[in-house]
Write the structure tokens for this entry.
Amino acid sequence: MVQALKLTDLIEAVSAGGASCLTSTTELRPAAGEHASVAPAKYAGATKRGTYAYEVRYEDGEPRDVVLIDAKQSQLNRIESVLRSAMRDGHETLSRLPHLTVTYQQGDTTVELTDLELPHRAFDGHFRAGTIDGEPATKNQQYVSVRDAQPGNARALLDASPVSLIFGAWDSSRAARQGRWRSILVGEIIGFCAAPGDKEILKGGARIDPLGAKIELTSPQLKALAERQKSELSAATFTNIANGKQASRAGLGAIPPTLEALAGVACRRIVRSHVLSFAALRQIRFAAGAEGDAACGALLAALALNGLARSDAELTLRANCDLAEAGPTTVSIQGRGGTVSEYQSLSIDAADQLLAEALAHAEKVADVKWSGEVLRIVGDPAIASVAGEDSGAE
């Protein structure tokens, strides 16, 4: 009988001589059926429409073509997002998670960003450019302690930004003592498919205007139309409308069907997989002795697994990429000497219980104190004044 994952399993795994890693694997399928295609992640390429990332992976001992449906960073971002939502919803345990925030004032709007949203976590440029109590954040003793944390003693990071230890962080702009923390949790979704070779497969697109297929405006009329909407348009779109002769730039009139966008990809098999590295966790110390360090490592593992359980329950990637689980998630711990122990997949409730137990144990043996502590940083007003969504694209 497959056993439930317990706190003692995590403590044993992160202790000296413990297991290598925990793996979680799920077979997925297109929600519409095997006849349906999916829209993989799109990357910048030689053409405006972008490109998909194709690789070669092994299946049954043979090399196969695959397409990357969701990459490592995207998977981690999804896990961060569900953890942040649970914190905001006042989750009993996750609301106690220590974190960093930076606050900007944009007119009457207050924008708050956390280390669960900013890409470099505790070392993000928004934090480093801000102030704490009127002084540069980089001069604040608590923040300095966070930046000075090293694998031999990462207690300051655990107490202020544990997500930086789970999802990875790099203090890349620092002249010396750069913090380089690898993510202990990695994952991806791939689809086994037929690579297109040198020829891209495109799909059609069109627009219907119920008022009239052909709408022609004069140059002065287009310019006036652009001026009325200027505050809502990107700079590139405004220029194209104001200086153009086509109402289609303003979303008016019909556009005949054309083959201009990348088509979806048909996959015969889709796999979501994640790896939680106990070996990486064992490289980190927390100034709490062997038992306390193991408790802190188990707490981080439980937090990562809680986010994974929540993220796995939300199979939402992007438009035209609706997926469903084709079978149960397989969870295993890869032990020493090739041993493998199978475990039940974690439901959200089970993951919540595991995290609560891990936190209570770390409080007892390592004096961990998580009570929702927030290191609050005030963002540089100059950054807020020039921030915008305009990337130059139409």
Notes: DSSP finds twelve helices and 17 strands in the chain. The mean pLDDT is 91.
